[in-house]
Amino acid sequence: METFLKEKKTEMLQLIEQLVNIDSGSYVKKGVDQVGAILKEKYEELGFLVTVKEQKQFGNNMIIQHKNADDPKIILVAHMDTVFPEGTVAKRPFYIEGNRAYGPGVVDMKSSQVELIYAIKALQKIGSKSIENIQIILNGDEEIGSITSRPLIEKHSIGKEYALIMEPARKDGSLVTARRGGGHYEIIVKGKAAHSGIEPEKGRSAIEELAYKIIQLHSLNNHEKGISVNVGLIEGGTSVNTVSASAVASVDIRISEMEQAAYLEKKIKEICSKSEILGTEIVLEGSISRPPMELNHQSEELLHIIQDVGKEIGLTVKNTATGGGGDASFTSATGVATVDGLGPVGGNAHSEREYLEIDTLPERTHLLAKTIERLSE
Q1: Structure confidence by residue, pLDDT tens digits, 342-356
Q2: What's the CATH superfamily of 2-180+292-375?
Q3: Where are the domains positioned within the chain?
Q4: What does the pLDDT look like over 174-222, one tens digit per residue?
């Protein structure tokens, strides 16, 4: 298997280049679906059945499993969308520099898509029946919160024993065993306009009210416990000499434990339930929508299995936690043992210098294939 994958490295890179050179940002539906069409063809060539879940606004989602599969116990999740807008590829297409490959979405996560396909090819090469024990969800809107694909992921996680999520490994090669959950709120304050020089006493400043709310919200931060409340965007007012009649704040929430969600939701509602400035009104919209991925007992056991597989093939596998959200939170919340970061090693995701460590492609594909085999025994 190891020799086979090393021999296929150039072939893998060629497919990665093809995928990277398609603009497939979350809002570029035609590009996401073009990537999906290529992957669909590859899986069908391997004897897999592909069910396409059509979407009107965002990229289509796909459910994939072997034609002989019967109640597979492993779910794998990989997204086809990137964060980059249409036209990015024309400015900076795929290229290789030294031992790294660059391009929009090269490691987050088009290389992971290719790794998954070649892990299946490697298992087919040795005649392993484990390829009949996997179900794959490819989604087209992960980068914007898995709006359409979350219900699909949650539905197909039920009854599974293991979830392997194909986000890239961290820069040091670590797998991800914990992710923070969170959500977004918008606070809309309505005041009363007045001329700040002629009759300021007749005004009711929405900006002043919002300032109180920002201070109160930020007092909820508890970084030691993994609670983060950040008012990241504010806007309001019409001119410098007008008491502001409106103001809006966008709030980002992060949590490390599911129990923290109810506490924060209660506190935020309390803060926004009353005005400090008489005559202002407050509207609160949003929620904590993404559960955290916690390192529980079953996920820890799955990690140890992957680490044992790593030792067998000469690869030291470490694990870490990250503040970013991902689809692993959805599989974990359904009670399935979940490990994330099973893609190849890379870094600088979502930036102009996003890169893939090319030499990690065969070894991480080998690790994935052997893990699927081990979990199917």
Answers
A1: 999 999 999 999 999
A2: Zn peptidases (3.40.630.10)
A3: 2-180+292-375, 181-290
A4: 999 999 999 999 999 999 999 999 999 999 999 999 999 999 999 999 9
